[in-house]
Please model this.
Amino acid sequence: MDEGYVDMHLHYLPGVDDGVREASQGIALCQGLRRLGFTKTVATPHIRTAMFENRRSTLRPAFEAFETAARDAEDMPELDLAAEHFCDDVFWRLFQEGETVAYPGGHAALIEFPEAIIPLGVEQRFFEMRVQGVAPVLAHPERYRPIFAKSDALQPLLDAGLMLQLDLMSLVGRYGRRPRRAAERLLAEDAYFLACSDSHRPDDVPVVATALDRLFDLAGSEYAQRLLGDNPRRVLSGEVDL
Ligand SMILES: [Fe+2]
Model:
């Protein structure tokens, strides 16, 4: 397989969420990640009620404007668009209406939970998504409180077909000691399917660089390469068992 990494979670679209403010910062972020080995970066702006009221109809033009702004920039990765959906009733409604901003190819969608609780009955919803051919991908499980001490709460969700996505910066303590330890434990359990930067600004690039070194130390190069390159490509091409 192609050896470049694919970043399936970051916030380089300017002015749509808590990511970069200006196109120039988005370009600098993408160029920085390209230097670290990411040959493709999929923007995942937040869709979260009362905070970031984004929809496909507004994100697509914002993405196209960024592509235009970045047209002459050198050493850019390939760009694409998805979204990070907050897991609430609005998300389920969008899903039923075919209005989620799924990963390119439409085979998977990125979801985040609230920090303190795992939403009740979510495994049934994930099962429904799988039945409809869209695999759920959970952003940064290591940052949710019910997962800090043990992984048990994830098991019913994994049984329903959920894929876990590591936030690389968790490995270097970006979110504190407990998420760092949870990330190390989930890695040791072989629980992750993807590893991504969740970067929000160009200043995150050196942190991601350190985190990549840490990932290779902890996971070994074969597992790390799978999380960063092979598995993201499988998600994009739909080669994930449904
Ligand atoms: Fe994010």
User: Anything to note?
Assistant: The radius of gyration is 17 Å. The chain has seven helices and nine strands. The chain has a mean pLDDT of 96.
